[in-house]
Amino acid sequence: MALAAGCTIVVKASELCPRTHSLLYECFEEAGIPTGVINMIQARREDASSVTEAIVSHKAVRKIDFIGSAAVGSKIGQLCAKHLKPILMELGGKGPAVILEDADLEKAAFLCAMGAILDHGQLCFSTERVIVHKSVYDNFTKLLVDAMNKIPAAGNAVTKQSADHAFEVLKDAQAKGATFLCGGLEYISETSLKPTIVTNISADARIRDEETFGPSTSVYMAEDDDDAIAKSNDSAYGLSAAVHSTSWEHAYNVAKQLEYGQVQINNLTSADSPGQPIRGVKGSGWGQSNSIWGIHEFSIEKTLVFHPSGQNNLFIRH
């Protein structure tokens, strides 16, 4: 978006995939982007803090764009405040899919399963929670288990540490009384976990409001629409949600009460289109990216007031 707005940019590449960033940089060069318009910095993980501070504090840098965890985003946000630099942040999520009593249950189950396991769950838009109206809870959970069991594997975590984190969150949930409807504490490989559905989650379990970043989802029963809305909003995050209903009016009435930057109706929580803005609320960041909204983020509005010569335009406001 910054490039589309006419800005030059400095990219701090991920230390986990430096060659991928280099290849992308080479593509821009080959496409004719002038030297110096796109600049890339490669750094070791142990140097990340000092490199980030050098970037943020540099007088030529006028805005920061960060995508990552809420914990790191908080640190970078404080650094930007120190140097009076505006920042666009897309942080974590704990995306709920709300299954209303008039939903197409089979379709919703498939979408929730896919939303939970795409990219091994390593999406901030991942379907981390499924909140189901009690009248369809039993039927839906059976369909969700069937849909999840049809997925033999969910790919791989980017690192073993990431897979281990997801495993430990599930292990903590089980130790505090949770049960697995399918999957469980099982590695397929050292970087891959079995797709898992969790239920009976206690209030003090890490999984209740911590991103797993793994191929799992948690299922909750809602007494009615108001309870489903309350359970959905009971999160520190507010990035993306979904509502499933065969009634557009019903879905809309629920969706407008959800505290999320985007709500998909009858689709994946991770559904995205270049034409729609991406925005987070609460602990999921601030600002907007994509399309014209993203371009506005990297533009500076200016007010010009024209006064014809020869006229007395003195106006004093108190």
Count of domains = 2
| SSE order, one letter for each helix or strand | EHEHEHEEHEHHEEEEEHEEHEEEEEH
> What's the count of strands?
18
Q: What is the makeup of the main sheet?
A: 7 strands, mixed
Shape: globular
Low-confidence runs:
none
**CATH top-level class of the largest domain:** Alpha Beta
**What is the second-level CATH architecture of the largest domain?**
3-Layer(aba) Sandwich
Distance between the termini: 40 Å
Order of neighbouring strands in the sheet with most strands: 7-10-11-6-5-13-14
Number of separate helices: 9
Rounded mean pLDDT is 94
Pfam family, one: Aldedh
InterPro entries: Ald_DH/histidinol_DH, Ald_DH_C, Ald_DH_N, Aldehyde_DH_dom, Aldehyde_DH_Superfamily
Organism: Lojkania enalia
Keywords: Oxidoreductase
Structural notes for this entry:
The protein is α/β, with parallel strands linked by helices. It has 2 domains: 9-91 and 285-297, Aldehyde Dehydrogenase, Chain A, domain 1; 95-265, 3-Layer(aba) Sandwich (Aldehyde Dehydrogenase, Chain A, domain 2). The protein is built from 9 helices and 18 strands. Helix 4 crosses helix 5. The longest helix has 16 residues, at 160-175. It is globular. The protein starts with 8 loop residues before the first strand and ends in a 21-residue tail after the last helix. The relative contact order is 0.14. The mean pLDDT is 94.
Please summarize what this structure is.
With 318 residues, this protein is an alpha/beta fold. 32% of the residues lie in helices and 21% in strands.
